[in-house]
Specification:
The chain is of the alpha/beta class. The chain has ten helices and 13 strands. Among the domains are: 85 residues, OB fold (Dihydrolipoamide Acetyltransferase, E2P) (Beta Barrel); 158 residues, 3-Layer(aba) Sandwich (Rossmann fold). Helix content is 34%, strand content 20%. Its main location: cytoplasm.
Length: 359
């Protein structure tokens, strides 16, 4: 595997730049080579390198998050212990989409790393779930990436103006674009608002893979039919994959997300509900809970129809969920500190006993 300057490196098509090249200096000196993780599967991962794709073992790496994920920039040891390249280290993540894990250790699950644009796919074939959109927006904003709402399957409805207005009200400051990947209508408009590394997120049946194929200009992603009754589909995408876009940038397709739990997304919620945060600045009391307090500007906006009641309810729900997730993390950190304290105490007691025997 050769060393190539960033500007002319084949990895430039996958986002490699001079900053990453500089960050990689010490790894090159150690004989490691750069690559971008394209997919992860059962202890192995597909990595795009300067000399083409390789299958590498993951193993333990020197990173805060020990498990590589799609989108990571990795330092590979070309001569791994099992006669295949091995991930030796991960470069610091510029952004990371993290959701709450169902595991008891309360650690977050990284869905994709080093993402620039999060495209939230919402099918117009069924009534859009705005609460889910707001949840995904919070994850996207928290990651450090820029969210975009893409209303898919526009050919299934007579018009999209009302749906676009409804989605825009739930996504202040976010581009909302409608398209039909089946007919091609609106695909170029979608392409225009995407940049850098793009990840497609949304539930099964939202048309992510079909949209991805339209953006890629090829049937590179598996697609499947959805049930007519509820518009839900099977998980035709079973793992996250990273593919270069023909006009520049990179696309990551993800499996349909059934559960999207928040994980320490306070800043993401502030951005998602920027309209409510702005209204709250006009409340009489600084600690207003927006329930029954006098002089509440948020409740006044609900009463006069400026703010939908549904949106306030969603805001409250996600705030509660985020607080609960944060408390789980705090409890885990306390337990880890206690475990470390016990280990140190045992080591000290053993040391004192050994010193006593030496006297």
């Amino acid at each position: 595997m050769s060393s190539v300057f960033a500007g002319s490196s084949p990895l430039a098509a996958y986002g490699w730049d001079e900053t990453l090249e500089n960050e990689f200096t010490s790894h090159r000196a150690a004989g490691l080579v750069p690559g971008r993780v394209a997919a992860v599967d059962r202890g192995l991962c597909d990595v795009v390198t300067e000399d083409g794709p390789v299958r590498a073992s993951t193993g333990p790496v020197t990173s805060d998050d020990p498990a590589p994920c799609t989108g990571d920039w990795a330092a590979l040891d070309p001569d791994g212990p099992d006669e295949r390249p091995a991930v030796a280290a991960l470069l610091p993540r510029r952004t990371a989409i993290v959701r709450s894990s169902a595991a008891r250790d309360s650690r977050g699950q990284v869905l994709a790393a080093n993402v620039d644009t999060v495209a939230i796919a919402v099918s117009l074939a069924t009534s859009p779930d705005l609460g889910r959109v707001e949840r995904l927006l919070a994850l996207a904003w928290e990651s450090g990436a820029r969210p975009v709402v893409v209303l898919t399957k526009a050919d299934r409805v007579p018009g999209t103006a009302a749906a676009e207005a409804e989605a825009a009200a739930a996504a202040p400051g976010v581009d909302v674009v409608a398209c039909s990947a089946a007919t091609g209508d609106g695909v170029e408009a979608v392409r225009a608002v995407l940049s850098g590394t793009v990840v497609l997120v949304g539930p099964s049946g939202a048309g992510k893979s079909t949209l991805g194929n339209a953006l890629l200009g090829a049937d590179a992603l598996a697609t499947g039919a959805v049930r007519e009754g509820d518009g839900k589909g099977r998980h035709t995408t079973v793992r996250r994959e990273l593919l270069p876009l023909p006009g520049g940038g990179v696309l990551i397709d993800t499996p349909g997300l059934r559960g999207v739990g928040l994980f320490e997304a306070s800043q993401g919620l502030e951005r998602t509900f920027a309209d409510i945060e702005e209204l709250a600045a006009g409340c009489r009391f600084g600690d207003c809970a927006h329930r029954s307090e006098p002089g509440c500007a948020v409740l006044a906006a609900v009463e006069d129809g400026t703010l939908p009641r549904r949106r306030l309810d969603s805001y409250r729900k996600l705030l509660r969920e985020n607080a609960w997730a944060a408390s789980r993390t705090d409890a885990r950190l306390r337990a880890e500190r206690e475990d470390r304290r016990k280990v140190i105490s045992r080591w000290q007691r053993q040391l004192y006993r050994e010193r006593g025997r030496d006297r």
